[in-house]
Amino acid sequence: MGHAMTISATMVKELRDRTGAGMMDCKTALSETAGDVEAAIDWLRKKGLSKAAKKADRVAAEGLIGVGIAGTSGALVEVNSETDFVARNAQFQEMVSAIAAAATTADGDYAKLLAVPFPGKKISVEEHVKEMVATIGENMSVRRTAAIAVKQGVVASYMHSQVAPGLGKIGVLVALESSGKNTEELNALGRMIAMHVAASNPIALDIGGVPAAIVEREKAILADKNQGKKPEVLEKIFQSSLKTFAKDNCLIEQAFIHDPSKSVTQVLKEAEGKVGGPIKLTGFVKYTLGEGIEKKEEDFAAEVAKVVGEAKKS
């Protein structure tokens, strides 16, 4: 199949968008990997041609991310609608705000969130959403929820492309554990770090939190680039590469977007005086509207139909 596979312009564009590699390199990578975009990304990286493996931006969902904060805990929800028109509707926005407030009692448990009473109503969140579907006349659904809490300190939030307070397209929560009494200062710092998360897309808090599969993938790419080197040399290369990887992908090691001369860890350390106590960044959550909802099956079916159609013509 390898070479009979037609590499469509769309595939080349997607690979280019995700790697920043040149047009011809992308085309070669796709031919070499029989049109498998993920494999092509690895192929380009092994050749040192890829800038980054960005996740595809193509998403198939509208709606809003909502944030709710209650005391020292915070929650995020994603509520989807079919059209952006409904996402701009005041009734829909009020509903998402209320669901986000209810989510602060659900501890990130999706089933629990659907079952909690909708604020100010006798019915559950799930029932209320069903009623709203009938009222607004468009399908809507609560897709997911996450929560984060501290024993003492603050959970701060940031909402990007905000359409109303606490509602937008990208929502971030950051947990700062601290005994410092100046919570106003702590909150301001938390919001700055939440903005940093929205912009810098960390994979994890620290290197220990990076999924094993990602670390293995990095190892495989390095081993491929350094074939024939002794195991102990390879290990050294891998350790130094892991440090670089952490600086790029782990929140506490990243260069702070508001002051790139410092790492997030340094910024926290320097703020301890103002806050009046040690500060520990214990976690973060980031939700981007529609991430991961890619209508792959439908696109695949359409592609197959197109190929079948072309085969009939010839």
What would you say this structure looks like, in words?
The chain has 314 residues and is an alpha+beta fold. It folds into 2 domains: 1-57, Orthogonal Bundle (Helicase, Ruva Protein, domain 3), CATH 1.10.8.10; 62-203 and 266-288, Elongation factor Ts, dimerisation domain (Tetrahydropterin Synthase, Chain A, 2-Layer Sandwich). The protein is 47% helix and 20% strand. It has 12 helices and 9 strands. The strands form 3 sheets. The protein has a 4-stranded antiparallel beta sheet with strand order 3-2-1-5. Strands 4-6-9 form a 3-stranded antiparallel beta sheet, covered by helices on one side. The protein has a two-stranded antiparallel ribbon with strand order 7-8. A hairpin with a 2-residue loop joins β1 and β2. It is flat and about 65 Å long. It starts with 8 loop residues before the first helix and ends with a helix. Residues 53-60 have low confidence and may be disordered.
Q: How do the SSEs run, as a string of H and E?
A: HHHEEHHHHEEEEHHHEEHEH
Strand content: 15-25%
**Low-confidence parts, pLDDT < 50 over ≥5 residues?**
53-60
Number of strands: 9
Question: How many alpha or pi helices?
Answer: 12
The number of distinct structural domains comes to 2
Largest sheet: 4 strands, antiparallel
Measured as a percent range, the helix fraction is: 40-55%
Question: Using only CA atoms, what is the Rg?
Answer: 23 Å
